[in-house]
Specification:
With about 800 residues, the chain is an alpha+beta fold. It contains 19 helices and 33 strands.
Length: about 800
């Protein structure tokens, strides 16, 4: 009787779904199973990830666990660098860049590990005989529930499979249903490309036991185990040595548990099998229904904080892959909203407190040696992963990144001393789970000693959104020690007597005057990073009332940094010398860091630099790799050009592999970003850029709809966060704000900037500088301008600025003035 009722309920739900399957803007859905990995749908709980293909006959669920990396604890410093450093600097300052690069390759680049790859755990495979001829197929990823579903019909029976990854219970759950009793029969096994064995236990459990690979001379010693327990109603389960056979079941639940022996980056003494079994036994006692309920509640506490509506067209009735294929500006604004929320979904699913930070592919990878080893590239990509975390109200999810920076400040302390004879800590352009901090990949790409400077910005940014002084005190030692390294490492260049970073590169570019060598000194990005690091460390020290002598030293060094420079064709120079080529379309736009994510270049405070940055960005062009287009969405938002930002979103939402330009880019059918191949930073970068088009808080005020494109004439967004502890909801119509709600967590002055006049209780016209300490801006030096530079000026829209005195917990509603 129970089986009959379950089938009746399932059949009714299936029919209702088919008739209303397009009723949500928060679903990715398709009419075919995935044939490629970049068509499968991702689920994750920060630690455990799965890619679900939804194949009725040969289902594949590809598995990841975020500590399954090749190798073992290791270091990769090259102590020969310390002795060679003065000679490299001499060669650079004499203009002998090729010779400097050769010496860096010989003496600086690691001779041991170049970093370990992140590896797949393997696959769970379910074989359903006779299910090849299916009809009524539908599969979906529900972003509101973090749940994948596939439905189809075979021989008069309706089948449904649901998959989710639970953070509270640390298991992946696969739930199989049919609308007729005894209709579920399949075989299950697990596999991995190498270094793994599959066995069964107790008649209903599959066990995949493995060890990660050796790489570049570092022996693989991470042991892991994946366990799949099959629980069923009706029917029987039979076991062989390496597979399970389910026969004539009414309903089946597969509980997947995975664990490794990894404790931390220095310790792999854990017991993978005991951990995996403990997770599994706890889940079995709790049951699938309770696990799912807690999973949804846990997930929704993050996802439901932000909602967005950019309008809707008939395109919402199409499968997601067809929407991508047909996307054009204005044709499907709901796809942009879906892409934004998919980015937030991915961050919730890939980065949870207590785990590892999202790597180049988040947590999803089906290979043993993925592209770029799926490591942490910290000259843009790792930082970009966390750009949405504060503004889109997911602050807790950047805690794994902050923990990694804590650990890097430990491992990087030895690198600073061994390689450069310097105090503090440092990191080059790449790291992995073992927190390597030496330079890798050759001098052209790897001789960039600024990773610690950029990652340190993330720590202070979190404070600016929360105002949490206890948190600031906990990360201040990291900022302090990073600053101490650069105080030691900065060197005076001979021409202007500026303090510069040398040797270094402008990631990962080279000037056309020296195309074979990227090595240089005093690159614009390096100067901008040091400017931010010192100013933020000074501010933190002053808030915490500490380190007066160090603050004075940083202030003195700030006066000796090179100013930003405007070159002969009106561009913001990328290098200390005027080497920029207007035909350079390189994917990295490193010298524009000062525009975004930093706030050193402002249309209101620095019009000459603002126009120079715009000139550089126009010259670089729009078409590029996926992550680069995501960065450019943010840059055009900061340039207050919403139409151009939307054009970049159109480029990014073009089908991957169908490009007639440049380096590729675009989006795969499952909405994964294409570098190509897949890199998750493009998803995160574009999600942050969409938010940045609607709200900014870095330039002295909370700017409402700063870069709203014409095509988004009507819409709403709620739950965004601004610096100073402000929550912001915005409704707009006819491209003008209709109702703005400000929620103040800390109190204090809220300065509001708008292109339209506003009215509301307590709102007063702004006067003078913003007294809110979170909106105090470090002033830069006046730029140097080449005599022949043509400073093209772009007119700015008129703005209205208001001050609103707020109290902690206060809610304030503002409207368009009539």
């Amino acid at each position: 009787m129970r089986a009959f009722l379950c089938c009746l309920v399932f059949n009714l739900a299936f029919l209702l779904h088919v008739s209303a399957q397009n009723d949500s803007q928060l679903k990715l859905w398709y009419t075919e199973p995935a044939h490629r990995w970049v068509e499968a749908l991702p689920v994750g709980n920060g630690r455990l990830g799965a890619m679900v293909y939804g194949d009725p006959a040969k289902e594949v669920i590809q598995l990841n666990e975020n500590t399954v990396w090749a190798g073992q604890p290791n270091r990769n410093d090259n102590p020969q660098a310390k002795e060679a450093l003065p000679e490299v600097r001499r060669l650079i300052f004499e203009g002998k860049y090729d010779e400097a690069q050769k010496l860096v390759n010989q003496k600086f680049i690691s001779k041991t590990s170049q970093g370990m790859p992140y590896e797949t755990v393997g696959n769970l495979r379910l074989l359903f005989e006779g299910h090849e001829n299916y009809t009524n197929y539908h599969r979906a990823l529900d972003l509101e529930k973090a749940l994948t579903t596939s439905r189809y019909r075979v021989n008069g029976v309706n089948y449904k499979t649901e998959v989710f990854s639970s953070f509270p219970d640390q298991v992946i759950v696969v739930h199989l249903m049919a609308d007729k009793p005894g209709a579920i029969s399949f075989s299950a096994t697990m596999d991995r490309p190498e270094n793994a064995e599959v066995s069964t236990r107790g008649g209903d459990e599959l066990i995949l036991s493995g060890r990660t690979g050796s790489h570049e001379g570092v022996e693989g010693k991470v042991q892991f185990q994946a366990r799949a327990s099959i629980q069923h109603t009706g029917g029987i389960v039979k076991a062989t040595e390496s597979s399970l056979q389910v026969e004539q079941a009414d309903e089946v639940t597969i509980y997947l548990s995975i664990a490794s022996n990894f404790n931390n980056y220095k310790d792999i003494s854990g017991n993978a099998g005991e951990r995996a079994d403990a997770y599994l036994q706890k889940a079995l006692k709790k049951g699938a229904e309770a696990i799912r309920k807690d999973h949804e509640a846990d997930y929704k506490q993050y996802f439901d904080r932000v909602s967005i509506d950019l309008g809707e067209t008939e395109a919402v009735n199409l499968p997601t892959d067809q929407r991508i294929a047909q996307f054009q500006i204005g044709s499907d604004p709901a796809l942009v909203a879906l892409y934004f929320q998919f980015g937030r979904y991915l961050l919730i699913s890939a980065s949870r407190p207590g785990g590892q930070p999202a790597n180049l592919q988040g947590i999803w990878n089906d290979q043993l040696t993925p592209p770029w080893d799926s490591k942490y590239t910290v000259n843009i990509n790792t930082e970009m992963n966390y750009w949405p975390s504060e503004i889109t109200n997911l602050t807790e999810l950047n805690e794994p990144l902050i923990q990694m920076v804590r650990e890097l400040s430990e491992s990087g302390r030895q690198t600073a001393r061994a390689m450069y004879g310097a105090d503090g800590w440092m990191l080059h352009h790449n790291t992995d789970i073992w927190r390597i901090s030496g330079p890798v990949d050759g001098a052209f790409w790897g001789m960039w000693p600024m990773g610690g400077a950029w990652l340190s910005q993330q720590l202070f940014d979190k404070y600016e959104f929360s105002g949490d002084k206890r948190y600031l005190a906990s990360v201040y030692p990291i900022l302090k020690e990073a600053s101490k390294f650069y105080l030691d490492f900065l060197v005076e260049e001979p021409e202007h007597k500026w303090l510069v970073i040398a040797p270094s590169v402008s990631p990962e570019n080279a000037p056309t005057v020296y195309p074979e060598s990227s090595i240089s000194a005093g690159t614009t990005m390096d100067n901008q990073l040091i400017f931010d690091l010192f100013n933020k460390s000074i501010k933190a020290a002053e808030v915490l009332n500490t380190d007066e002598a160090l603050v004075a030293e940083m202030k003195e060094s700030l006066q000796k940094l090179p100013p930003m420079q405007i070159g002969k064709w009106g561009q913001l120079q990328e290098w200390m010398q005027d080497w920029d080529n207007p035909k350079d379309h390189h994917r990295h736009v490193s010298h524009l860091y000062g525009l975004y994510p930093s706030n050193q270049i402002s249309p209101y405070r620095h019009p000459a630099l603002y126009n120079a940055a715009r000139t550089s960005l126009l010259a670089r062009g729009d078409e590029s790799t996926g992550w680069s287009m995501g960065w450019k969405v943010n840059l055009w938002a900061r340039l207050l050009d919403g139409n151009h930002a939307l054009k970049l979103i159109e480029d990014q939402l073009s089908p991957a592999g169908n490009k007639a330009f440049g380096e590729g880019g675009g989006t795969y059918p499952n909405l994964f970003d294409a570098h190509p191949p897949f890199q998750i930073d493009g998803n995160f970068g574009c999600a942050a850029g969409i938010a940045e088009m609607l709200l900014q808080s870095q330039d002295g005020a909370v700017h409402i709809l700063p870069a709203l494109p014409d095509a988004w004439a009507k819409g709403s967004i709620s739950g965004l966060r601004a610096r100073g502890g402000f929550g912001v909801d915005i409704k707009w119509e006819d491209n003008a704000p209709g109702e703005v709600t400000i929620r103040s967590a800390m109190g204090g002055n809220c300065r509001i900037r708008s292109y339209y006049p506003l009215s509301g209780k307590g709102l007063k016209l702004a006067k003078g500088a913003n007294p809110n300490p979170f909106y105090q801006i470090a002033e830069i030096k006046e730029p140097l301008v080449a005599p022949e530079a043509d400073l093209k000026s772009m007119p700015l829209r008129k703005t209205y600025e208001y001050d609103l005195k707020t109290k902690p917990g206060g809610v304030y509603v503002i409207n368009l003035a009539k």
